[in-house]
Each structure stands twice: as C-alpha cells, then as structure tokens.
Structure prediction request, 101 residues.
Amino acid sequence: MLAFRQFVYLDLQKTGCTFLRDALIAACREPPVENRKHAPLAVRSGIPRIMTIREPLQYMVSLWKYGLDGRGGFYEAHRASHPLAYAERTPAAFRAFWISP
Prediction:
C-alpha cells in the first residue's frame, strides 16, 4: 500500500505495481504518508483508492511461475500447503496450485 494524503494505491504483486509505485512517488509533490509494499489497506475513509489488476487466469499463471523460481510472498505463504504445486512445471502441478487442498 502506498498512501498519499489525497489517494491510496493498493499494490498487488505481478500486476506491474513496482513500476507504478516508483512512478507515483516520482510524480507526486509530497512524499507518501505510508509506504508498505503489498500491505493491506489500513482503515481510511473518504479518499480514493486505485489499484492495478490483471486478467485472472494470466495472473494466476504468473504467480505460479514466480513461485516455481522460489520467489514472492505468495509462494512463501503457499508452498507448505501446496507442495505438489511447485514440484515441476506441468499442467498437473498448476492444477495443484489452483485447487486448494
């Protein structure tokens, strides 16, 4: 989450968020009041929220492939409960990633 006084940017990994975070920080006149990458939104009312999104299936494939490389917070949180998902780069492994145990 990147919070400015006028708006909040909710960043979601694998959606181009690092590029946009850097661009917003460079473009805004004032520094952010809060800067915690991939953190949930603290309770804030009355100011606009923006975020980047991605086509759902491509988003899930990207998260899975990133995990195959042993990278990302989602992988760290997910690998213990889905060990078969990261065993190999196959359709069966992706199904294990997609379907919760």
User: Anything to note?
Assistant: The beta strands are 2-3, 8-10, 34-35, 49-51.
